Structure formats: structure tokens, C-alpha cells
Structure prediction request, 419 residues.
Amino acid sequence: MVTVDRTASLPDDQRIVVTGIGLTSPNGNDLETYRKSLLAGISGVTDYEIRYLGKTLAGVCKFETSKYQSKKDLRRGTRAGSVGIWAANEALHRSGIDWANVDKSKVGIYIGVTEHGNVETENEIYQIKQYDYDTQFWSHHHNPRTVANNPAGEVALNLGVTGPHYTIGAACAAGNAGIVQGVQMLRLGDCDLAIAGGVSESIHTFGIFASFRSQGALATHEDPTKASRPFDKDRNGIVVSEGACLYILERLSDAKKRGANIIAEIVSYAINTDATDFVLPNPERQAQCVELALKRGGLNPSDIQIVSTHATGTSSGDAQESQALRKVFENAQGVHFNNTKSFIGHAMGAAGALELAGNIPSFDDGVCHATINVDNLDPDCALEGLVINTPKEIGQVRYILNNSFGMLGINSVLIVRKF
Prediction:
């Protein structure tokens, strides 16, 4: 088949580009530090303790919350809001946009989340338990903290944005879904600038840890840095992490007009549903999602240089995604596969956006970061081109494909290219 990159034929006002990336992750609070950690094999997973569950492991973000928020804001708001506010401000700063003169009514905020509100609800119940469950001690901040639009709303309040804002509930496909929403709204003319991506505060709710443990899907290891081990035969589950990654998206016409530094271009995307199980993934549907994204972009599997896998470290999930990828890429040459969760754990709603960000610098340095902690590759997860334990120089990188899947069978795929 002949490649016909359909995006290149679109008018500039329909081509969407990335002009800024802001993030906080367990192993870096900016793209440069984050990338260095990935290339150096530095894990951000650490020992962690949480109410009722006790000692466990997690990916914890450490950033200066007071840089963009007052003490009052922090007292009233949420952790999801804080990580989002950090990422949004950092992304805007790095985009070079003259923010003071931007029409805030034409800015849209689209943030993906896996879950929201559990942290605040657990905390409030814990507090009133000490007062014999007297609800007069329930916080009056509870409702604005727990409404579904909170993470995007807190970012809007912080930045003074008066355009549309909302969150996209897409389980662990949410990071990709937030970006997809931003692309669509820019093309529709709903906004002129989009702040899009995903956030997660998951490590602050004991419920998510307890649920994964009850499923037998919570990772354990005597060395926290080796606990997240996708594709390894001895993998034993997920490491829960927090984080955020937000992108500044613009129409190419607008980015050119202001002389922006263009980091990447969004080429294609696809979202579909397994419709087969609450939790267990469906490799056939995953393969269909990847194939749909390629088809929409006018691309062949061999056009992709890096596939960023979703693999979480569960026994069934990793093997089934590998099965899907083998189906799509079985005859493709020069395709490399990696995994970022092996470094930072599973950042839930932020996962897809963070994992894409970790690979985007490959456009400049030509290096595919590795999947670490693969001491004994599971034959069911074997992929031709899987980069394990040591980064690989692969030369020119033109296209990156980013997988991000979630519970209740939601699958998302995003393809970006070097501009």
C-alpha cells in the first residue's frame, strides 16, 4: 500500500499542532527532566502508605504547589486541580504565547480523568467518623471539589479562562481522549486555543488500591523501582500513580501566524469499545482501534517508528495487547515498541498524555526509550522491535503511535508526527 498522509493535504486551519507541553510525573516535573529520567532508566516508583491499606507502592509527584496557587486555593481545591494547574501553567509558559493578550473566551480546556471525587469523599467520611458521623462537620467545599468538571474547572478559574471547560471521563484512555477532544473542538471552531490532556490524583484514594488488591492486580516487589514490570514473566500487577500532562494545541494557521515553535502535529486518532467485559481487554477490538487510526491518517503500519504501549503489568492485559499489536504490525519493518509505565507506574487518567510526552523528544534525538524491568520476557508478550532495558538509537522518527486503553472496554489510539 502507498502511504497518503491525509493530514498534510488539509488546509492549515484544520491541521492541529502541539506548541507547549506541561507535566508533573513521578520522575520529573518538566519534559526535559522527565525525558532524561526515561533515557537513564530512572524509576519514579517509591514506598507509599495510605489509610486502611497500609504500606504499598506508588508513583508520587513532587512539585512546588505554591508556584501557581495561593494557600487559600490549595485549601479549597483538590489534588487533581493542583496537578492540572501546574501542568497548564507550565505548558502555557513553554508555548511562548502572550497569555496576557489572549482572548480567554476563545480558550477551551479539555481534561481527561479516570475517576474523580473519591479522594474528597473518603476524606470527609473519615473526618465525620470522629464526630459520630454528624454531618454538620461535612465540608462546605465538598460539592465543588467532587463535581465531574472539577479538574478542568479549577484550571479555568486559575487561568481566568471564560471559554468552554469540561472533563472527559474515559477511564485509563482519558489522556488520549482529552487531546482528541481538543483537536475536534479546534477544527469545529469552538475555540482558538486548547489546553488538553489528562490528570490523576488516584494515589490519594485508598479505594483504588484496595480494589486492585482484591482483584489480585496490585503490584508488589521488595524493590519499589522494579515493581512496575510490563511484559516480564514475573509481573504481578499495577503500580498506582498520580500525575498530569497537558498540551497546548493550536491550528497550524494560528501557530504560524505567531511564529510558534511547533513540537509535533496530531495526525490521526481513533476511539472504540470492546463491549465484551467490565475489566478484561479484547485484543480484537484493540487491533481494530489501531487499524482505524492508521486508516484515518492514510498510514501503513510500517510508517510508524515508535509504538507507545499501554501495558500496565497485569498478566492478561499485557499479553492481549501484545497479541493485538502482533496482528497489526506482523509484516511491518522498522517499528519499535516501548512502555513508560515501567518507569512511573500507571498514572490512570494522565497515563496516555504522559506516555506520549515521554516519546515526543524522539523526533529530535532519534532515540526510543526502553521498557525497564524486563528480566525475563514473557513469550506471550514478545514483539519484534520491543526495546527493553536499554534505549535504542533508531535514527529518524517521523510517526509515533500512542495506545491507551481503559476499563469497560474503552480503547484510544493517537498518532503524532514530526513537523
Observations:
- The first strand starts at residue 16 and ends at 24.
- The mean pLDDT is 97.
- Residues 79-95 form the longest helix (17 residues).
